[in-house]
Amino acid sequence: MLVAAAVCPCPPLLVPEVATxxxxxxxxxxxxxxxxxxxxxxxxxxxxxxxxxxxxGVHGVxxxxxxxxxxxxxxxxxxxxxxxxxxxxxxxARPLPAPLAVGAWLLDRADWADAPIEGLGVDxxxxxxxxxxxxxxxAASAERVALLVMGDGSACRTVKAPGYLDERAAGxxxxxxxxxxxxxVAAVLAMDTELAYELKVAGRAPWxxxxxxxxxxxxxxxxxxxxxxxxxGYFVAAWS
Length: 240
Description:
The chain is α/β, with parallel strands linked by helices.
């Protein structure tokens, strides 16, 4: 059963080594993410899943010990998703996608050592039904389950945003922030998939996995951070 969740943005710039000048404008987001991860630890889960968006063909499970690198962003920095189970070698079969690598970095910064970890890459185009089904499966996998859910809002908030300015983006992000900040499961599952695609919302599918996992959990939500410093919506929320 799901007992806690943290929602965090997943830009590699969240990692100071990747950001030129450490991007101090993201300091508040980093602090909120670490606070949210701390709340996950306080829930004392039996298992933690790190869930993030990936392109088609990359989706699936990334076992504990899976490694990721930020070399593609010009930084000689590697991370690992927890520790491989005793008696097994760390898994290097598939590198962690960037969103899961950012999640692994957050857990490392928080000195996570509270429960076994597994990563789940979710196809960005997965339907709400598929996402909810994945969430149900995660929630049923242990008595006390926690999720670290990585994903960004729209990428169309300003003319300098990756997707340029779209007047619909601010409204979408405002409703996403409200739904995530209040643990409104029905609203998250009802997010418009076509509009989310047009606004380049990377978090829609992972958020709907969370909503599926939380359908019978009765969790409350808190919004810890909301901003769009690069024209991309970033939210940090805690469900418990």
